[in-house]
Amino acid sequence: MKIGIIGAGSIGLLFASYLSKAFPVTLYTKTSEQAAIINQNGIYLQEGNAQSRFSVRALPISKWAGIEELTIIAVKQYQLHSILHQIASLEFNPQNLLFLQNGMSHLKLLKNIPAANIFVGSVEHGASKVNTYTVSHNGKGAINVALFRGAVERIKEFAEVCAAIHFPITLKDDYYRMLINKLIANAVINPLTAILQVKNGELITNTFYFAAVKKLYLEITFILNLEDPIKQFRNVLRICKKTGNNRSSMLKDLEAGRRTEIDAILGFLIEEAGIQQKTASNIESYYYIIKGKEKDRRGS
Amino acid sequence: MKIGIIGAGSIGLLFASYLSKAFPVTLYTKTSEQAAIINQNGIYLQEGNAQSRFSVRALPISKWAGIEELTIIAVKQYQLHSILHQIASLEFNPQNLLFLQNGMSHLKLLKNIPAANIFVGSVEHGASKVNTYTVSHNGKGAINVALFRGAVERIKEFAEVCAAIHFPITLKDDYYRMLINKLIANAVINPLTAILQVKNGELITNTFYFAAVKKLYLEITFILNLEDPIKQFRNVLRICKKTGNNRSSMLKDLEAGRRTEIDAILGFLIEEAGIQQKTASNIESYYYIIKGKEKDRRGS
């Protein structure tokens, strides 16, 4: 099974290095320069003190023709539009597409994609990009995948091979529930840690921050009409504790002057609130604060 | 007219130096050491590149007997309790007391004070304490004073002398309106600048921050039942622009690891919201965030 991976960020590089153990992988990069560097160097995967090198073929994204049996789309939600445009203009419809974006706002974009089978996934691995061809695997976590539209067979075969190479993928029945679980944790942890400039664990060890966490969580449950808000809240607390020493991706994005995924996370919730004519006071204000900080950092 | 000033922070030192031009001033300090240092050095007032020295008598607060005709209480709201306790235990009731605290939560504490005349004031001068006996006067602003209880004559005489020494005091008819105007500006500018870590002006130049300003302001108008919210909002914007290059006192307090005045400002609004059974989502969350940051900085 040939695999295409679009996007050479931390998740794209992580998938490319692991999957190259079992599949012929082509990694599609934003620029030709990036592709050339990866073709020359391979991909270096750092895990603790160990470093392994993987040979992966890289091509610029303009060369992607959707011919691989499975293409994994590992770009940020806000970079998705141009990919979708490219899919629509392909000569042949791609067979299997797996989308790994955070948040929920990409779902409405996937409805009209001309592909046989579409899957969505949520990645809980901790990874950070060290340079163009090097990724640091900071923490092992789950990869959950669910069918969004079409048939599930090919992804089952894919998941079986992934298990054999110790890169396990768990198939889930309900893509909405799977993504909403990740969204809830992201919507609480990411904006607050980015605003407070603290590690994930401080959200629960500082009693005042924890009070702000609870207020935000209540707004989220109200908008999402959660069936079992207490169980879900325990899941958020579990993630805060487990990743207590980590800086969230949104905090790191702001610190590095990068664009955050706030639109895919709180932006989605604000849209949902609007549809249901509910108010989302904290969510809206935190959204504005993050957007303002993005503007502040990127502008300066 | 003998003047007592309680509190040798930036405002206490500023008042002591100016008023010593026309009145015999006794400055009451928290500790005997502070008093000894001020008695030895005098008070240095820095204005731009100029520095002037003023001889002021200083005594520790335990020596205050309320015998001056006017005592100005220039401590933070959260330091007020011990002063009020001392007033209640004085041999003679003091004649004229002027309270300069920010916010509104001190008003309910003033109701039962055994003094002939009680005044409240709001200070818009910019001042920062350089060391125990030196204050930097960063920006001239208004001092507004209004009667809280009793007769107004003595403060009128006082204000006339202050005008003559170019330390103008404006008498206001309505203490509630006077303090609420200051509170509104403080409640918008202080928490947001402290959370965002920006100068006052950025609240209006960054369009996303400005959206957060407006949401917070709407909650405040709702709780305070403002008659003319648009006029009041223009006042807030005017202050943001006028003090655009300043870092707010709350931002500076957090940066220095000091306690902030959040209880007197947002704490008061949360109490008001509770009395009126109104929700104050943003106000509550910002309150928790500032309290959490206080804990974070002071603890570390």
Question: Overview of this structure, please?
Answer:
The structure is a homodimer of 300-residue chains. Chain A folds into 2 domains: 171 residues, NAD(P)-binding Rossmann-like Domain (Rossmann fold), CATH 3.40.50; 115 residues, N-(1-d-carboxylethyl)-l-norvaline Dehydrogenase, domain 2. The termini of chain A are far apart. Chain A is α/β, with parallel strands linked by helices and 300 residues long. The first copy, chain A, is globular and about 50 Å long. In chain A, the strands form 2 sheets. Chain A has an 8-stranded mixed β-sheet with strand order 5-2-1-6-7-8-11-12. In chain A, helix 6 packs antiparallel against helix 8, helix 6 packs across helix 10 and helix 6 packs across helix 12. At the A-B interface, helix 8 and helix 12 of A face helix 8 and helix 12 of B.
Within the largest sheet of chain A, what's the order of strands? 5-2-1-6-7-8-11-12
Tally of domains of chain A: 2
Proportion in β-strands of chain A: 15-25%
Number of contiguous helices of chain A: 12
Main sheet of chain A, how many strands, which sense, barrel? Answer: 8 strands, mixed
- Helix percentage of chain A: 40-55%
Looking at the overall shape, the CATH architecture of the largest domain in chain A is: 3-Layer(aba) Sandwich
Q: Give the structural class of chain A.
A: alpha/beta
Oligomer state of the chains in this structure: homodimer
Question: Class of the largest domain in chain A, according to the CATH hierarchy?
Answer: Alpha Beta
Instruction: Please tell me what the overall shape of chain A is.
Output: globular
Rounded mean pLDDT score of chain A: 94
CATH superfamily of the largest domain in chain A: NAD(P)-binding Rossmann-like Domain
Q: What is the largest interface, and how many residues per chain?
A: A-B, 25 and 25 residues
Termini gap of chain A = 46 Å
Over all CA atoms, what is the radius of gyration of chain A? 19 Å
